[in-house]
Specification:
Elements: H1 2-26, H2 35-43, E1 48-51, H3 58-68, E2 72-76, H4 80-92, E3 97-100, H5 106-117, E4 123-126, H6 128-131, H7 134-141, E5 145-150, H8 173-176, E6 182-186, H9 191-200, E7 208-211, E8 219-225, H10 229-240, E9 245-249, H11 253-265, E10 270-273, H12 279-291, E11 296-299, E12 312-317, H13 324-331, E13 341-347, H14 349-360, H15 366-384, H16 389-396, H17 409-412, E14 417-419, H18 421-433, H19 440-447, H20 453-457, H21 474-486, E15 490-492, E16 500-502, H22 506-510, E17 517-519, H23 530-533, H24 535-540, H25 543-560, H26 564-567, H27 570-579, H28 584-587, H29 595-612
Parallel strand pairs: 1-6, 1-7, 2-4, 2-5, 3-4, 5-6, 8-13, 9-11, 9-12, 10-11, 12-13
Antiparallel strand pairs: 14-17, 15-16
Bound molecules: adenosine-5'-diphosphate and zinc ion (ZN).
């Protein structure tokens, strides 16, 4: 009995100590779900796998135990830019951290190693290949290592979508440090990948796994039909995110450059980023992205790994990603700070064709193609669904569907489902009667009764299907074709010419055995999520104060040569507007204000806040 009692006392003492460090060093007053459980397991010495969505707060899970433990914690991270960013962020909070990587000169390395040996550093970031070099292994073996954390841990698994060769050997570390707890963290890992991580990293049998929900509740998902993409994008940004930061993803480099120029002409602060640009141009774009308050990066998917900026307010896709994994990862770069943000995508029939074509024309094995096809199909289902988008995303990641989310375009603006069976029969007949050798555009011309020279030459104006679809616009037929294709009622026959043909399933439609509904198009799609996105500012209603705080943050960040979000996140600034702190002790209550930041910045910020209250 007594033993149990004293266990509880010790547990409470530990919990209190952890909470104190959380407030004092990081400025957060409470743990998020799973942060606490992960941290408690780690400090009890267990190996832990934590799966948390982007923005879920993974860093604290290893940074806090690192401060709690007496010795040094090693953090394995794949990207130099991320290491640098984290170290700057930690230093701002008064936490001694450093990185050891190939960027440093011998001289710099020596100085840092000396500091580590003298116990002046708590957290050391290293790359996966670096940590297993004989030199560093010997160095670390001579130290008191308390924790080894592995960030982006899904990279150890071949099942994950970003397997990295450097990660595969990380399991060897367990042989060198058998008594040190390992903490593996990742934002994306299905159950197979999770098991694989545990095996590859040789976790002990009493290890624990904590899997948070994949839900990013602050992201509003919108997927809309392509009509005039530039106009739609411009309207979407101006209506929802003017003066804010975002990323616009395009499939090709050429399109990136074109959209960048077009956006600039429309008055946006847009910059291009893709792998074909010179490294100085890329570095400039990356730098602007880190330092400017309001910037739009138009990019291929080459841009994104290692983004740490928490206040990206929107991610727009002008082309369809090839899988839900990619879509989730790319859209996940929005709103890491938890403030309302948008994932906005535009797509059309040609996207489906283009991606399928790229896939079919690669040299990859049939097994690969099969899996890629099914991933693309799931992506299409997400686009075409007439139910909550978030629920579909969550179920894709093996999470039980919840009730409709209320924060995606389908929930906010329920779609009309209209019966499309008869029109589907028309289009299938048209494909059949013209010989199953034409692409979408031509088929639609015949259906809508065009008398252009090609139609006349082929005498397709004589067919019974000629003109039977003239009551509907081209966009309607495109949408219907898209739906028929994604449900397997038609297929693409020839990848070069993109000809459409019937499938074994087509007869179900032709005989009227199946129901077929189509989403009814609405006007003004691009302004859809206006409602939710304004909320963050409306809450405190002090937009002017927010702007003043933002410009103070900007000037401090320029003086120090660090990104603005390292000084304070938008969330902290909004919190200041909400709480209107009057003195240092009240300033400490603001989210993200720890002891060090309070000392450094309270005077300047309080001065502005006082002038408003
Ligand atoms: P991840 O690495 O999982 O994407 P981060 O560690 O960068 O996420 O944290 C995301 C954001 O959440 C950061 O702005 C961080 O300050 C904030 N955060 C983390 N933990 C907490 C907490 N317990 N309370 C409030 N904010 C938190
Ligand atoms: Zn929804």
């Amino acid at each position: 009995m007594n033993i149990i009692k004293s266990d509880i006392v010790i547990h409470n003492l530990k919990a209190e100590k952890l909470k104190n460090i959380l407030k004092e060093k990081f400025g957060h007053s409470d743990f998020r779900l799973h942060q606490k459980m992960i941290i408690e397991s780690v400090i009890e010495g267990r190996d832990v796998l934590g799966v948390m969505p982007t923005g879920g707060g993974k860093s604290v899970c290893y940074q806090l135990p690192a401060l709690y433990f007496e010795g040094i914690s090693i953090i394995i991270s794949p990207l130099i830019s991320l290491m640098r960013d984290q170290v700057t962020q930690l230093s701002e909070n008064g936490i001694p951290a450093c990185y050891l990587n190939s960027e440093l000169s011998w001289n710099e390395k020596e100085i840092i190693e000396e500091k580590i040996c003298d116990g002046e550093v708590k957290i050391v970031y290293v790359s996966p290949e670096g940590v297993l070099s004989n030199y560093l292994l010997d160095f670390f073996k001579g130290l008191n290592i308390s924790l080894i954390a592995i960030d982006e841990a899904h990279c150890v698994s071949q099942w994950g979508h970003e397997f990295r060769k450097d990660y595969i050997r990380l399991g060897e570390l367990k042989d060198y440090f058998p008594d040190v707890p390992f903490l593996a963290l990742t934002a994306t890992a299905d159950s197979r990948t999770r098991n694989d991580i545990v095996t590859q990293l040789k976790f002990k049998s009493d290890h624990e796994k904590f899997v948070s929900s994949f839900d990013r509740s602050n992201i509003t998902y919108t997927i809309t039909d392509r009509v005039n993409e530039l106009k739609q994008l411009d309207e979407f940004i101006k209506a929802n995110h003017s003066g804010q930061t975002g990323i616009v993803y395009c499939l090709s480099r050429k399109k990136v450059e074109k959209i960048t120029k077009d956006l600039q002409k429309l008055g946006h602060n847009a910059h291009a980023y893709h792998a074909g640009l010179s490294s100085s141009v890329k570095a400039k774009a990356q730098d602007l992205f880190n330092t400017e308050e309001c910037v739009i990066i138009v990019a291929t998917i080459a841009f994104g790994m290692g983004i740490n900026r928490p206040d990206v307010r929107f991610v727009a896709h002008l082309d369809l990603p090839k899988s839900i994994e990619s879509y989730y990862q790319e859209t996940g770069r929005a709103g890491r700070d938890g403030i309302e943000s948008s994932a906005w995508m535009i797509y059309g029939f040609q996207d489906v064709i283009k991606l399928s074509q790229m896939l079919e024309m690669t040299e990859a094995s049939e097994t690969y193609k099969k899996s890629a096809r099914s991933k693309l199909d799931s992506m299409l289902t997400l686009c075409e669904t007439t139910n909550c988008r978030r629920n579909y995303l969550l179920s894709y990641f093996e999470e039980e569907a919840q009730q409709a989310c209320g924060n995606c375009d389908v929930c906010l603006y329920p779609v009309d489902k209209v019966d499309a069976l008869e029109n589907a029969q028309k289009i299938l007949s048209c494909i059949y009667r013209t010989g199953q050798i034409f692409g979408a555009n031509y088929l639609i011309e015949v259906l809508r009764g065009s008398k252009n020279s090609k139609v006349l030459e082929r005498r397709h104006d004589q067919l019974s299907v000629h003109g039977i679809g003239s009551d509907k616009p081209k966009t309607y037929w495109n949408r219907l074709l898209r739906q028929l294709l994604s449900s397997g009622y038609i297929a693409i026959k020839n990848w070069e010419y993109r000809n459409l043909c019937l499938t074994a399933k087509s007869s179900e439609i032709l005989k009227g055995e199946k129901n077929l509904y189509i989403r009814n198009k609405k006007d003004n799609d691009s302004n859809k999520n206006k409602k939710r996105n304004k909320l963050a500012e409306v809450n405190h209603g002090r937009g002017d104060l927010f702007e003043e705080l933002r410009s103070l943050r900007k000037s401090l960040s320029s003086d120090k040569g660090v990104p603005p979000y390292i000084i304070f996140s938008d969330k902290s600034l909004h919190d200041m507007c909400q709480l209107l702190p009057r003195d240092k002790s009240e300033f400490l209550m603001v989210n993200g204000v720890g002891q060090r930041k309070c000392e450094q910045y309270s005077k300047d910020f309080l001065q502005i806040i006082r002038s408003h209250s």
